[in-house]
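Narrative summary of target 7.
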Amino acid sequence: MAELSTLARPYAKAAFAHAQQASDLAGWSVALATAAAVSQNEKIGELLDDPQLTSDARAEKFLAVCGDFSASQQNFIKLLAENHRMALLPEISHLFEALKADAESTLEVEVLSARALSEEQAQRLTLALSKKFSREVHLHSAVDESLLGGAIIRAGDTVIDGTVRGRLAKLAEAMNS
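Modeled conformation, tokenized:
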């Protein structure tokens, strides 16, 4: 995975710099997410691997499926096709979103809990995480009934395990030390 990230990073940075200069971060975000989703389609994968197609033909067919992209977004896709980097689109989109979130001082947080969070719990958690990370937090919650209780919070590279199972594991580790 590190190799894909290394290859995709310059493209993501270039797309981000252009989008920021054009004041179109949201438009580029949508375009890259769309392109990433299209590139993961099995039939599109076969198209991208077809050795009989030129890079221009690959890009044109790909863009026909993607829909309405701006001229600069189309040029970006053509550049990826020319450099045989279309398979990097999901990683480019992911890195672009990270750069966008950093520039906008936002943070996407995923909460996995044993039971659904109430509106009040979600608001308190959002406020606490906003203070902790000094960013605007966008909270996404999901329920995992296999958890005994508590929650797992994923915020970027940070994982906070507040589950009963996690706390019991920490207690057992402390007792065995």
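The domain at 2-101 is CATH 1.10.520.20 (Peroxidase; domain 1).
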